[in-house]
Design a protein that fits this description.
single chain, about 525 residues, alpha+beta, six-stranded mixed beta sheet, two-stranded antiparallel sheet, 8 strands, about 10% strand, rod-shaped, disordered C terminus
């Protein structure tokens, strides 16, 4: 049975079919044999019944002969001899028929010979003599005396005895054949039931085996493919290494899984490159952002030295200066931590986090870039958002790309307000909707279908991968990303994230970002 799972599916079905057919064939052969036995026993019973009926006919013929002779002796009327003569003829016919019916039974043939001799002896020595004596009036008394003698009675008793002997043998044969027929009926009935039950059990067993070796693996394979389609590459592919079609399917799914893993690895590398490129664009702003707390720390350190050099030293002012130095150092450390998180090659695993806090961390990182291009950045962050389950760094990368793209789109404007608004809100299905609205040059209606295509760009020095990566990141989180035109000008980029179990809602953040 251990070799059964390794067979091809067609061979499995053939084995199952052959097993059922074999059981049906064997049981049918046995039933057919018993039916033949039943038919043979039935024919033999009919034959034996015919023999018994013929024996009855022979017995009645002997009785007719005896009654005819007796009637003639009592009345002397010749008409009583008619049954005698007719009975003799019928008896002869019966004997010949019995010989034909029992031609295959030498013992019965011998008994029939004895019966015929006894009957012939009775007719010649008793019946014919009585008729001859009765025909002569002088010898009628002798005829009556012969009738009353033991010789006449003995001869007829011998004939009846031989008939009874033959009848008993035939009835014994009839009983034996009846037993054979009933046994054949019982065996045929039992084999029909057992054959049907065995066929049913075999069919059920083969069905279970086929279910375990075909249906269940295919179901598990379907579940595995569905999990892979959802992006779960941690699932194991069942059936790898099998020698049948399921094994071939498993091998194909394993290749599909490896391709997904490779694609995710390539996508992660590309996303990492995009983050580094984006952070590289913000080098001047990041340097300015880091320089501010460092310069403040240096200034506070010089002030502390002056307070220490006073006579007497002003320790309260020194303590205050050191507190400010520690705060500036922490501020600089936070900025560097944000940058390190964004450019880390291997982002942390998915977890639940506050999306509003992630947005504010990105805004803090690009604040100087926004100010340098004289852009007014506003936030409208809903306070009743559920926590998001996903990769915080990847989603921050999406927000960072949208902000940087908006700032670059408005950098070339010579007139008009440069406004950028970041919004978060709950959508109609309980998920989260994030929007980035700018007042830049916008895009042509014909390019809407190409904005998210890889290597499509409207920037002179762009590579066209930023929005494609952003869309793939959002799609990997089960969301959707799209773009529309803003009024009176500019663009709106939006993406949704599916609803998750609501966590603690973040505090509401709503207002204009301080600049300056």
């Amino acid at each position: 049975m251990s070799a059964f799972p390794k067979l091809q599916i067609l061979h499995k079905l053939m084995v199952a079919f052959a097993a059922v057919v074999a059981i049906i064939f064997v049981s049918s052969a046995i039933v057919y044999d018993r039916v033949r036995v039943i038919e043979a026993a039935k024919n033999l019973r009919v034959h034996t019944t015919d023999v018994l009926d013929t024996l009855d006919m022979a017995l009645e013929a002997m009785l007719d002969q005896e009654i005819g002779v007796l009637g003639y002796l009592l009345t002397g009327d010749q008409k009583f001899l008619e049954p005698y003569h007719k009975g003799g003829q019928v008896f002869g016919v019966a004997i010949r028929k019995l010989r034909d019916l029992t031609s295959d039974n030498r013992a019965q043939q011998s008994r029939l010979d004895e019966l015929n001799e006894l009957a012939t002896k009775w007719r010649s020595e008793v019946a014919e003599r009585k008729v001859a004596l009765m025909a002569n009036p002088k010898t009628r008394e002798e005829a009556h005396a012969l009738t009353a003698s033991e010789v006449s009675k003995t001869a007829m008793d011998l004939v009846r005895g031989k008939l009874d002997e033959i009848d008993t043998v035939e009835r014994d044969l009839l009983a034996k054949r009846d037993v054979v027929q009933k046994q054949a009926y019982a065996i045929a009935y039992a084999m029909t039931i057992l054959g049907g039950a065995a066929s049913l059990m075999t069919a059920v067993l083969m069905g279970v085996l086929l279910t375990r070796t075909i249906t269940m693996p295919i179901t598990r394979m379907t579940s595995t493919m569905a999990a892979l389609a959802r992006g779960d590459t941690s699932i194991e592919v069942p059936g790898v290494g099998r020698g049948d079609e399921i094994g071939a399917m498993a091998a194909a799914v394993q290749v599909f899984k490896e391709r997904i893993i490779e694609r995710e690895r390539t996508q992660a590398e590309l996303a990492h490159f995009n983050r580094i490129a984006t952070v590289g664009q913000l080098t001047a702003s990041i340097a300015h952002e880091v320089n501010q707390p460092i310069s403040a720390a240096v200034t506070n350190a010089e002030a502390a030295l002056r307070w220490l050099g006073a006579h007497p030293p002003n320790l309260d002012e020194v303590r205050q200066a050191l507190t400010w130095i520690a705060a500036d150092g922490k501020r600089a450390g936070d900025i560097i931590s944000r940058i390190r998180a964004l450019i880390r090659k291997a982002p942390p695993p998915r977890s639940r986090f506050d999306l509003n806090e992630a947005v504010l961390d990105v805004i803090a990182l690009v604040r100087n870039e926004v100010l340098r291009h004289r852009v007014s950045l506003q936030t409208q962050l809903a306070g009743d958002l559920p926590q998001i389950e996903g990769d915080r760094i990847q989603l921050q990368q999406v927000i960072l790309n949208l902000i940087v793209n908006a700032v670059e789109a408005m950098a070339s404007l010579d007139e008009g307000e440069r406004e950028l608004q970041i919004r978060t809100e709950a959508d109609a299905v309980g998920g989260v909707l994030v929007s980035a609205l700018d007042s830049g040059m916008g895009f042509e209606a014909s390019s809407v279908d190409h904005i998210f295509e890889a290597f499509y760009t409207t920037k002179p020095h762009g590579i066209g991968m930023g929005l494609a990566i952003c869309q793939s990141i959002v799609a990997a989180h089960g969301g959707r990303m799209w773009a529309t035109a803003n009024k009176p000008r500019g663009a709106i980029f939006q993406f949704t994230l599916p609803p998750k179990q609501a966590g603690a809602a973040s505090a509401e953040h709503d207002g204009q970002m301080p600049v300056g």
